[in-house]
Design brief:
This protein has 4 domains: 2-203, Neurolysin, domain 3; 209-273, no CATH class; 320-357 and 568-700, Neurolysin, domain 3, CATH 1.10.1370; 383-553, Neurolysin, domain 3 (Orthogonal Bundle). It has 27 helices and 9 strands. The protein has helices at residues 53-73, 80-89, 92-107, 111-132, 135-146, 155-170, 177-206, 224-236, 249-258, 262-273, 285-301, 307-312, 320-351, 363-375, 379-382, 388-403, 489-507, 526-535, 538-544, 556-564, 570-587, 598-608, 625-628, 638-656, 662-674, 680-688, 695-700; strands at 211-213, 243-245, 406-410, 421-426, 432-439, 451-456, 459-461, 464-466, 469-473. Strands 3-4-5-9-6 form a 5-stranded mixed β-sheet. The protein has a two-stranded antiparallel ribbon with strand order 1-2. Strands 7-8 form a two-stranded antiparallel sheet. A hairpin with a 2-residue loop joins strand 7 (459-461) and strand 8. Helix 1 (53-73) runs parallel beside helix 4, helix 9 (249-258) packs across helix 14 and helix 16 (388-403) packs across helix 19. It is globular, with a radius of gyration of 25 Å. The chain starts with 52 loop residues before the first helix and ends with a helix.
């Protein structure tokens, strides 16, 4: 049931967050039981300790069950005010503690937190089922739903009623008692398996592999800042005097791009793509088998032919068949483009006298050579213009130009790690919008990737708006010696991407928790992906891309090279993404729910689609956290689905002749503000005035 979603990987927990007072003297000093005495009532991270979580969560569960009981026992005909609204507002303390725990377990975990997660996860799963399978509560909600037309509800209230009713139906409320018992068992097992999957990926990424280089000659080709970062990492790894490379992308990708030692490139990349597939305690293959089987059982229990049908029914795509048809429109042109790229790189190998066939671990190295040959451009040439501070200024600059908002850095706001920086976000008139945390760099306790989450979502209580507390978590290049953190352009666009998610949460303004910011999964990436477009626009680059030493703006000649290379390697990038998306759908629409060999299933599934051996899916099965521990199961396709929307939406700004067109910016902000109030396509069409067109996306990627 949506109101009790609780995932231990840093994803948003869909509950409210207002402080509650507890009368239990044994936990009276627990910071969750008092109103936060911090600026803007952000979590007091300096006071919160691991031992505070379980008492707060257990008390939160107790309080919410009491709130549910009040709804059930109230007399009178169920209506919006005595049933739907109190349900929508319930669970404040539970949300308050669970958001903090979930987010910290994704961004700043440790063995103590992981042990707590294994204890807490089944408690939260059971609590969610206790509510969604409560027959008396469902009876009340169903009554309101069945009489909703005659109750004279406005559009917002009507949508909340329909959403909550649908949550209960999808949560199993209409199942028989015996089937509800089966569902509880499935949900508990899946929650434990997903948690273990994520813990294994974290260990394999951050702890279980290092490429230690002892011979300086093996560093040939690497930029100086990459070498310096490897020196720093070696000291952390207790191997001083050597160079250490990790599976975190800021360490791995530059090595794959520039290191001339092919054998070491192979070793590092194999370390990456063999994560959780090494037959050790962190191997995920058996977990995948169990997850796929249990999800299929759950879908059939709910009346769907497979798990993908159950998930996608809630999305804009509606059916797996529609997803397949959409992906196929892109697969063939992208694969053809990738084959051409492969041939071009093989030609370079042959001309250099290399007596070997291009392999997956060669792609980054030879694509970098190909980019240099085609566009006289390499990554090391542009990185000096993209220091952390400059790119951060860039996202703030774009937001200010579009929406007039400002960002004030604060040092008096508690943070959960010394590396985190905080900002207060304000309207042009100075009124408060929310608080934003930025957490840039990898560390042992942080899962890989980049994401945006909230410690408190926007809401209304007693007519008063409560502002959001938003956090962006990344794994970007660290400073090295005297050199500041210099971003690759991929990191630049990732920061703009996550910032788009943050703006969505900061601008959200809806009267009810259930529908505030709630959009289909294949719509949710529109706000993030559209922001990426501004990152590479020449006029925007001139404003923020400045050399970290000279302070001079990026020259026109370099911008021109960037523009000309915009479609470079798009065959590879699109194919590796689509391959992962196809693999996701195949796992969740299986001909048989029993998979005997995960690696064979992956290999055969992608071979049928014609994937060339030089390209691996962006995520192989054993570390595909998005779908096995992160909430994107049967939904990894959503990034490319939303890419159609973002390319089409940005085209509106381009067509207007003004990248910061104030009228369009106001309309797009309204889309973000009111998201959840209508169906996804209705919201989009209201902004664009027409249905989205796939052509701008094909043109942007050079696939038309």
């Amino acid at each position: 049931m949506r109101k009790q979603i609780f995932i231990f990987v840093g994803l948003v927990v869909a509950l409210g967050t207002v402080a509650q007072k507890n009368e239990n003297p044994g936990v009276s000093k627990n910071p969750f039981f008092d109103s936060y005495k911090t600026p803007y009532q952000v979590p007091p991270f300096d006071l919160i300790k691991p031992e505070h979580f379980i008492p707060a969560l257990e008390e939160g569960i107790k309080q919410q069950l009491a709130e549910i009981n009040l709804i059930i026992t109230q007399k009178g005909v169920p209506d919006f005010n005595n049933t739907i609204l109190p349900y929508d507002n319930s669970g404040e303390l539970l949300s308050k503690a669970s958001r903090v725990f979930s987010n910290l377990n994704g961004a700043n975990t440790n063995p103590v937190m992981q042990k707590l997660a294994r204890e807490i996860s089944p408690k939260m799963t059971k609590h969610g089922d206790d509510i969604s399978l409560n027959p008396e509560l469902f009876k009340k909600i169903k009554s309101v739903y069945e009489h909703r037309v005659s109750l004279g509800l406005d559009a917002d209230k009507l949508r909340v009623v329909e959403k909550i009713y649908n949550d209960f139906v999808r949560g199993g409320a209409n199942l028989s008692a015996s089937d509800q018992t089966k569902l509880r068992t499935l949900n508990e097992a899946l929650s434990k398996l997903s948690l273990q999957f994520g813990e294994n990926v974290l260990a394999e990424t951050n702890k279980n592999f290092r490429l230690i280089v002892s011979n300086e000659k093996d560093l040939d080709g690497l930029p100086s800042d990459v070498i310096e970062a490897a020196v720093i990492q070696a000291k952390k790894d207790s191997t001083p005097g050597k160079w250490s490379f990790t599976l975190q992308k800021p360490s791995m990708l530059p090595f794959l791009q520039f290191a001339k030692n092919r054998a070491l490139r192979e070793k590092l990349y194999k370390g990456y793509f063999m994560r959780c597939d090494n037959g050790n305690s962190a191997d995920n293959k058996e977990i995948i088998k169990k997850i796929v089987k249990l999800r299929d059982e759950k879908a059939k229990l709910m009346g769907y032919p497979n798990y993908a049908s159950f998930v996608i029914n809630e999305n804009m795509a509606q059916t797996p068949a529609n997803v397949d048809a959409f992906l196929n429109k892109l697969w063939i042109p992208a694969l053809n483009r990738a084959k051409t790229e492969c041939q071009e790189m093989q030609s370079i190998i042959d001309k250099e006298g290399g007596n070997f066939k291009l392999q997956s671990w060669d792609w980054w190295f030879y694509s970098e050579k190909l980019r240099k040959a085609k566009y006289d451009l390499d990554e090391s040439e542009i990185k000096p213009y993209f220091s952390l501070e400059n790119v951060q200024n860039g996202i703030f600059y774009v937001a200010n130009k579009l929406y007039g908002i400002t960002f004030e850095k604060r040092t008096d706001i508690p943070v959960y790690n010394p590396e985190v920086v905080s900002f207060v976000v304000k309207e042009a008139n100075g009124s408060h919008i929310g608080v934003l945390y930025l957490d840039y760099h990898p560390r042992d306790g942080k899962r890989a990737g980049a994401w945006c989450t909230t410690y408190r979502s926007q809401k209304y209580r007693d007519g008063k708006k409560i502002t959001p507390v938003v956090s962006m978590v990344m794994n970007f290049t660290r400073p090295a010696g005297n050199v500041p953190a210099l971003f690759s352009f991929d990191e630049v666009t990732t920061l703009f991407h996550e910032f788009g998610h943050a703006l969505h949460r900061l601008f959200q303004d809806q009267p009810y928790d259930r529908t505030a910011g709630d959009v289909p999964r294949d719509f949710v990436e529109l706000p993030s992906q559209i922001m990426e477009n501004w990152a590479s626009e020449p006029t925007v680059l001139k404003g923020y891309a400045k050399h970290y030493i000279t302070g001079k703006a990026i020259p026109d000649a370099l911008i021109s090279k960037l523009e000309k290379s915009r479609q470079f390697n798009q065959g590879f990038e699109t194919v590796e993404y689509l391959a992962a998306s196809i693999l996701d759908i195949k796992y969740h629409t299986p001909a048989t729910p029993v998979i005997s060999d995960v690696n064979l299933f992956e290999k055969e599934s992608l071979a049928k689609e014609g994937l060339i051996p030089e390209i691996l899916p962006r995520y192989r099965s054993t570390y595909f956290s998005h779908i096995f521990s992160g909430g994107y199961s049967a939904g990894y396709y959503v990034y490319i689905w939303a890419a159609v929307l973002d390319a089409d939406a940005f085209q509106a700004f381009k067509e207007s002749g003004d990248l910061f067109n104030p009228a369009l910016a106001a309309k797009f902000r309204e889309l973000l503000t009111k998201s959840g109030s209508k169906d996804g396509m209705d919201i989009y069409n209201q902004f664009r005035g027409k249905a989205p067109d796939i052509q701008p996306l094909l043109q942007r990627r050079g696939l038309d």
